[in-house]
Amino acid sequence: MPTPEPIGIQRIEALHYYVFEAERMRRFLTKLLDFREIGGSDPTSARAAGGITPDRTRVFEAGGVRILVSEPTDPAGPAARFLARHPEGVGSLVFAVNDAARTFGLLVERGGTPLDDVATFHDRGGALSTFSIATPFGDTSFRFVERRGFADPFPGFAPSRDVAPGGNRFGFTDVDHVTSNFATMAPAALWLQEVLGFEKFWEVTFHTRDVDPDGKEGSGLRSIVHKDPSSPVKFADNEPLRPNYQKSQISLFRDDHGGDGVQHAAFSTPDLVRTVAALVEAGAQFLSTPGPYYDAMAGRLERCGVGTIDEDIETLRKLGILVDGDKPGKYLLQIFFNDMASIQGDRRAGPFFFELIQRKGDQGFGYGNFRALFESIERNQAAAGRT
User: Fold this and answer.
1) pLDDT tens digits for 48-78?
2) Average pLDDT for residues 268-281, to the nearest whole number?
3) Residue 155 near residue 46, CB atoms below 8 Å
4) Phi-psi label, residue 384: left if phi above 0, alpha if psi -120 to 50, beta otherwise
5) Which residues are paired to 130 by β-bridges?
6) Number of domains forming the structure of the chain
7) What gap in Å lies between CA 169 and CA 235, rounded to an integer?
8) Domain coverage including residue 281
9) Does residue 98 sit in the same domain as residue 205?
10) Is residue 166 situated within a structural domain?
11) What integer is the mean pLDDT of 276-291?
């Protein structure tokens, strides 16, 4: 069956994050990650402008990465509804599109479920057309935005009076991909292919019993990556694997999150070693990687076809950075923050986490790193008595 026509996505424009306490998320983004708070909206200004959310919302930017942070002010608003069922997390993904009306028409024709009609707003610079749809990603919706000279992040927005110039000293450029966890991911995979028109890009299945066939414990996952054919947007989706389905860290995420949902988002940066070194100095908390991963790194990179890399392995070991790839001289570097519940010391902050990635010619998802992330999360859960 041929892939449906692309719906005109340009990029992931923003993550819309719903929180109980906006101030602690503001501190994390501005004090640690060097995002700028560029402004926001309150319920009065948002309603007066017919804005896309009635909640008190702040907007943060670092390079090409934008995060909207909404704290509930209306018990019937989207943030309150999301937080009644989940801890803090991504309640909506915002996509920039070429033509909102065309995107809307294609999605409806393919069986998509809009939450509203296309609405158009105006500001001093031009117009913005937008609408949202329901998704199989738990309670996370997708919003599509077409900008025709509209300068503000969203209707009802007011710039911060004390916004500081500069920022983004870590060089974040864009959202590389988003990863979600499911009890069963087939509905999401079919929806991405048949409604959004994405293509299957990569797939992996593994279980910790692969290296310990006689073990009585262990767990695994199946993951499929889908890519939009006309933009860099990628989704990696996971489901638990038997045996010990309920003990998989994918199942534990669902327990902590209250169902299916977005597990993490990856930010691109052009120099991950420099970025991580500066973040560690600033007090960032990353998932740990055991020494044997680095002991075997040179041989593994030879076997998988990458060969030599530019970075010093001992520097990568010190910082906890992962490396993977499958072609000569082409590879990727990754590192994963601890989840927000651990960072904030509050289960209500949720199991969501951020990833940092640098692609050095490799556009895929390395098997070795994928497995290393899975095992790192399981070690953290075991240390917390969660297995």
Assistant:
1) 555 566 788 999 999 999 999 999 988 888 9
2) 97
3) yes
4) alpha
5) 119, 145
6) 2
7) 27
8) 175-383
9) no
10) no
11) 92
CA distance 149 to 329: 41
Instruction: Tell me phi and psi for residue 153, to 5 degrees.
Output: -60, -35
What is the distance between the alpha carbons of residues 151 and 124, in angstroms, rounded to a whole number? 8
275 phi, psi to nearest 5 deg: -60, -50
* Sequence-ordered list of residues with C-beta below 8 angstroms from that of 340, at least 6 positions apart, any chain: 28, 88, 349, 350, 351, 352, 353
> The CATH number of the domain where 265 resides is what?
3.10.180.10
- The answer, yes or no, to whether residue 2 has pLDDT greater than 70, is no
pLDDT digits (tens, 9 = 90+) for 82-126: 999 999 999 999 999 999 999 999 999 999 999 999 999 998 889
Give CA–CA dist 349/354, Å, rounded.
13
Task: Supply φ then ψ for residue 42, to 5 degrees.
Answer: -115, 170
12: exposed, middle or buried (Cβ count in 10 Å: 0-12, 13-18, 19+): buried
How far, in Å, CA of 272 to CA of 254, rounded? 30
Give the residue-averaged pLDDT of 171-177. 97
Task: Give CA–CA dist 61/26, Å, rounded.
Answer: 11
The strand pairing partners of 356, in sequence order, are: 267, 335
